[in-house]
Amino acid sequence: TDPLAAIRDLFELPEGLIYLDANSVGPMPKSVRARASALLDDWVRLRQLGWSERAWQQMPSLLGDAIAPFIGAGKGDVVFADSTTLNQFKAVSHALAINRGRSVMLTQNSNFPTDVHVLQGLVEHSRGQLSLRFVDNEDAAVAAFDDSIAVAAFSHVDYRSGARWDMARVTAAAHAAGALTVWDLCHSAGAVPVDVEGANADFAIGCGNKYLCGGPGSPAFIYARKGLADRAFPAIAGWMGHADVLAFTRDYVPHQGVKRFITGTPLVGADELAGGMLDIWPQIEPRTLWAKHKSLTDFLIGALRQQCGPLGVEVISPDDYDRRGGNVTFRAPGANAIVEALIAQGVIASFRNPDAIRFGVSPLVIRHQDCLEAVVRLRRVLES
After folding, report:
1. What is the pTM of this model?
2. How far is CA 268 from CA 228, 238, 376, in A?
3. Closest CA to 162 of 330, 320, 2, 317
4. What is the pLDDT of residues 95-131, one digit of tens each?
5. 137-143, long-range: CB < 8 A, 24+ apart
6. In which band, very low, low, confident or very high, does the pLDDT at 49 lie, cut at 50, 70 and 90?
7. Are 66 and 199 in contact (CB under 8 A)?
């Protein structure tokens, strides 16, 4: 019995299509059409009816509270604002301000490029005050911490292989050396277990468009450990991060807690599309979601090896579920052409250079029969 069968019915899913690209853009909740239409109606009417009653100012916090349990955060500790890139800049800059006497940032070579680009930009603009150090794997990261490192910014899950790091272990090593952590949860939030509070993580960021189903261009989220946000002035100070948003005072007074990271006017249109999350996530118990994802991906890996292993498929995502992220990745000769052929067969997946195919498994909508049918269609492509 599928414990999330009723949730699947809340999504628009084309008949016959197997959508395994939630690691890029998650499926669309049915309620989004009505939300978008109502927003456009209010735009036409402007302040005549309804617009001033719309919760556009509260949406960053409402969305944050909806997904907080799925990253192990408390109510009021997560907000949606801006993009993952901007939130990476805010979080890392905040950590640097707190650890002002230190000059080194640490990240992994396999980190998502935009996260690394933010760090490189900070180095370029530091006039020689900052440097960036890379590590290849989790063990190397744990061993790399010393009293020069101000902040370590890591992806919780490798976006190519789907390998998941032990957040608690790495964070403990960072704290033992006096460093702070920023975790990118783009490829884990809404799919696999995440516990930022249990791991004592300092900051976490992530996009809303993948497993969280916030839609294309969804605002991203940012988390700050209790008390940490208040220890520094935000790098980007905007009116929505002010302690009194409607006071319109000349001088900025930062809001307490994570709300100081909201910065400027919320992305009202994007927030409303992402508002479909409010109709989905409060109905789900996190452990139910995670258990289903484990069952799905365990089954999928087994089917890939049995049905397609003899045809050259090699699963590179970890067998150990505690080390696996949202996507199952496998190698196959001619991977790019295979993905195009799969799309023609009604299986939506993604390709990553040089030879990786990713099946992004959303436990909200994917069933075991979908996993099996995707493998059957993959085998058909490989054989032909």
Report:
1. 0.96
2. 28, 16, 42
3. 317
4. 999 999 999 999 999 999 999 999 999 999 999 999 9
5. 137/108, 138/165, 138/166, 138/169, 138/170, 141/106, 141/108, 141/165, 141/170, 141/173, 142/169, 142/170, 142/173
6. low
7. no
d(CA 376, CA 303): 9
Q: Give per-residue pLDDT as tens, 238-257.
A: 999 999 999 999 999 999 99
> CA 284: distance to chain centroid?
18
| 362 Cβ contact list (under 8 Å, min separation 6) | 19, 22, 26, 27, 190, 191, 211, 213, 326
Residues whose CB falls within 8 Å of the CB of residue 356, separated by 6 or more in sequence, listed in order: 160, 161, 316, 329, 330, 331, 335
